[in-house]
Amino acid sequence: MFSQNDFSLKGKVALVTGASYGIGFAIATAYAKSGATIVFNDVNEQLVEKGIAAYKEEGIEAHGYVCDVTNEEQVNAFIKQVEKEVGVIDILVNNAGIIKRIPMTEMSAADFRKVIDIDLNGPFIMAKAVIPSMIAKGHGKIINICSMMSELGRETVSAYAAAKGGLKMLTKNICSEYGEFNIQCNGIGPGYIATPQTAPLREIQPDGSRHPFDQFIIAKTPAARWGTPDDLAGPAVFLASDASNFVNGHILYVDGGILAYIGKQPK
Ligand code: NAP
Ligand code: GCO
Question: pTM score, two decimals?
């Protein structure tokens, strides 16, 4: 029978990758406020220290580790260390990601590979490392942070769109392969969210006007605003909780309505 406690994460260990700041930080903070123990990683000690301090300011004792999600040896050692020091991971959020905005014909194969490596290979490596213990424990939640670019393309983001489109299908495949072990794997597809990753798209122009892309997104979003990382907190808690135990292989778009809307007619 349904109870409000179904949304609680009390007693759960949640690992959010790349969560020193930005969307990952907001999701991990919401998880902590819902009762979870927080583990996060980032690529260097400075970022991890910055993250630990930021969580402390929120009253959260987070466990921070240096780990590059693309390095399978590092990831396997990281997961073993977390299982020893904190506990078996109940919830994995594959949040770490980068974007390179370069016209495809000008993009080097090395740059293309780097985006695919972090945004698609990284989630594969992380999920592969945590699934065996989730199976042994009898349950698990994996949430992959997808994108509008899991559904749509646009100029200059070919590598990112290929990675996020692949991440949508990796999500559906983990659901298909491990659903029988009571593991739910879903995606969150944020719209345009105000974080350091999108800061270049919101820069005020020399004449003091808003960036053309900023104006474009406002016209394309029924909510007529950029999202904030906190807009993702509730959907992320839902997908990490027992309230979503029969939701699997689903990409939950948290986009203020962008994917439903043709866009406001220019004045
Ligand atoms: P962000 O501000 O750039 O944060 C990304 C985090 O991932 C950073 O802490 C980054 O560390 C870390 N990271 C990068 N490469 C890593 C690696 N190899 N191993 C471990 N950590 C790594 O990005 P965000 O805007 O919060 O986005 C977070 C996720 O949401 C990304 O997957 C992004 O694609 C996705 N997303 C963002 C938006 C948006 O509008 N912002 C919308 C849809 C989806 P560094 O500081 O060293 O780079
Ligand atoms: C871009 C943006 C987007 C957002 C996000 C949208 O350059 O178009 O960075 O890709 O990051 O992925 O969902």
Answer: 0.98
User: Per-residue pLDDT for 266 more than 90?
Assistant: no
Q: Which of 152, 168, 159 is nearest to 101 (CA)?
A: 159
32 Cβ contact list (under 8 Å, min separation 6): 38, 55, 58, 60, 62
Measure the CA dihedral 23/24/26/29, to 10°. Answer: 180
Strands 13-17 and 91-94: parallel
Model confidence pLDDT, tens digit, residues 121-162: 999 999 999 999 999 999 999 999 999 999 999 999 999 999
Q: Are 163 and 115 in contact (CB under 8 A)?
A: yes
- Where are the chain's structural domains? 7-194+226-260
Q: How many angstroms is it from 231 CA to the middle of ligand 1?
A: 16
- Ligand 1 atom at minimal distance to the Cα of residue 25: 26
Whether the Cβ atoms of residue 198 and residue 192 lie closer than 8 Å to each other: yes
Please answer whether residues 118 and 49 qualify as being in contact, where contact means their C-beta atoms are separated by less than 8 angstroms: no
Chain Cα centroid distance, residue 69? 13
Kindly report the number of other CB atoms within 10 A of residue 207's CB atom: 5
Largest CA distance in the chain: 60
- Looking at residues 244-259, what average pLDDT do you find? 98
| CATH superfamily name and code, 7-194+226-260 | NAD(P)-binding Rossmann-like Domain (3.40.50.720)
Taking CA atoms only, the protein residue closest to ligand 1 atom 3 is 197
